From TrEMBL:
GO cellular component: cytoplasm; dystrophin-associated glycoprotein complex
One MF annotation (Gene Ontology) recorded for this entry: structural molecule activity
Subcellular location: Cytoplasm
Main localization of the protein described in the UniProt heading: cytoplasm
Protein name (record): Gamma-2-syntrophin
C-alpha cells in the first residue's frame, strides 16, 4: 500500500549535464533535482510558482524555465528523460491541481465550458 505522501511526490530518472539524476515533483516543495544516491540533497529546487515556461522536442529532451525569486533572472534547466510523455503528463497534472487548489473558480470555469 502506498504512503499518502507518495501520492503527492513523483521522481523520474533523467539525465542532467550528462549525469544520471532524479527529477522530483513534490506537491509541497515543487521541482527538485538530485544526483547520486536516493535521498541526496538537491542540486537545485524551484517552487511550482517559479516555472515560467517549458519546451520539449517530443522525444526525450525537456527545457524548464524558472525565475529566480530574488534576482528575477530566468534560468533554464535542460533534462533528458526516456519517458518524457509520462513526465509531462505528471507535471501538467501537478500544475493543474496547484492552480485548482488556489483558485476554486478554476474548476467551476472548466465545468461551465463543457
Amino acid at each position: 500500500m502506498k504512503n499518502i505522501v507518495d501520492v503527492y511526490k513523483k521522481t523520474f530518472t533523467v539525465v542532467h549535464g550528462g549525469r544520471a539524476a532524479g527529477l522530483t515533483l513534490d506537491w509541497a516543495s515543487g521541482f527538485s533535482l538530485s544526483e547520486g544516491t536516493p535521498g541526496a540533497p538537491p542540486v537545485w529546487s524551484y517552487r511550482f510558482s517559479q516555472l515560467r515556461g517549458s519546451s520539449d522536442d517530443g522525444k526525450s529532451k525537456l527545457k524548464l524555465h524558472f525565475q529566480d525569486t530574488e534576482t528575477k533572472v530566468i534560468e533554464t534547466k535542460e533534462l533528458e528523460c526516456q519517458i518524457l510523455q509520462s513526465l509531462l503528463f505528471c507535471m501538467h497534472a501537478f500544475l493543474t491541481a496547484k492552480v485548482a487548489s488556489v483558485d476554486p473558480a478554476f474548476l467551476a470555469s472548466i465545468h461551465q465550458s463543457n
